[in-house]
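Purpose: get a first structural picture of the assembly so the mutagenesis plan has something to point at.
Setup: two entries, given in the order below. No constraints added.
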Amino acid sequence: MNARYERHCRRLLRAYPPRFRERHGEELVGTMLDAAAPGRDRPPVRDVWDVIRSGLLFRLRDRPPVHRWLAYRLLGAGLPERWRWWVRDDVLGRGHALRSHVGNVALMSLVLFALNLPSIDPGWLLTYVPATLVIGMIPIPPLNRAERRRILTKHGFTPDSRARGVRETR
Amino acid sequence: MKLSGMREQSYLILLALAPAPLYGYGIIAAVRELSDDRVRLGAGTLYGALDRLASDGLVAADRDEVVGGRLRRYHRLTGAGRAALVAETERLADLHARARRLLGITGPARLGGATA
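Result (structure tokens, whole complex):
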């Protein structure tokens, strides 16, 4: 009974990103269990909503500002130290290759579009854009892996995503 | 009721930590008691608030204990946290006194709760 309650709590925790879960997850689950009314299988709706909401808010708030995010996503710019754990979550997260490819394709298309504005044939646009999107999204594992390693190293992590340095900071 | 300045939630959490460091559920229980059962923090809200207070330098981690296989992390008020708490208390007391004057409420203040 308690084990089921705990399983529910752990599942709810996924509303938070990995960097939060790794740091506060155990504590949060422990608190939910401490606050649990006896004889329950699952947390009350109120608490469920509380955790989901807080997790989503955390994701929304704890991200780099738009201009930095764009530079990171489209130009491969490094983000300041404050965001390095966000970067780690981004790189290790599902669909990283896709997310960064869509950005590159979008940027490339915009540039080509701007350069060719006067002479663009609408028919061409209709074939070019979907074609580039599809091609751009083809995963090439060795390249994707190299890209991930590059980004991790750039932000002070070892290629296998552990933090470099003596102290474990935020 | 949200007054300008510190949120009520943050204020209550800081106040709860004033006597001694507390762990998660301890804070929730203390806040509930301090607010006469009015403010019931969920675990998510609590950790969101603690996160903000920590990044403002008002609270810090104190120690970890494992009780019954569960992790209990104690949080404490920092010096800056205590100072902020005192400042906010003074501000509220000042506002309270002014409000009473403006409203013509005389006599001793009606304080809730049995303990100081």
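Chain B has a mean pLDDT of 89.
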